[in-house]
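Tokenised fold entry reproduced for absentees:

. . .
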Amino acid sequence: MRSLKQTVSRHVGMQDSKVSPKAPEIGLVLLDMSFKPIACDRGAAAILNGKNGASIRSEPPSSLPKEVLDMIGSRKPNDLPSTKMTFRVGDSEYSCRTYLMEPECGSQAMVALHLEKVSSIADAIHAVAARYRLTAREQEALRGISMGLSSKDLAERMNISPNTVKVFVRLIMIKMGVATRGAIVAQILQDQSTPEDREDRAFAATA
């Protein structure tokens, strides 16, 4: 008789096999001082090739996005550590931070690029809706609020009355624990930012 542990393990394994591989959100690329890619991890290879990270090899990309090349090419080596920019690959936007790697023992210096996906507004809305357990209609109202729509415009968009819109907005505020539309938008923007941006804001608030 099959044990309960074996049954559960088999069930979990079947569930995992059905989950589509998620596109990577971070990656690292190493460049020589002529800005030619010499190494990268699987995440960066997948990002720059516009694929998920399940079946791609960690091989240096043949080229970098033009925005990145233009950015680092216009900087002096000592200015690279303070450089940050964003670029797009397909429908996704990524931030890129540069670091100058100066190894000891006479080894050649390198430039490291840290790539990280910038959450889209749709991702942020979905994250907020999931966190506060908003209904589908409340999420639709939340999307309209993020677009700056008035209650009248949102009512037309949702095919409901302005008073019903106000009810949805009030329910969203109660669930999120805020008192204004501005506070709702602020929460969405907080979820949209990168982890590093959130850390910067937190540091500024305590400074």
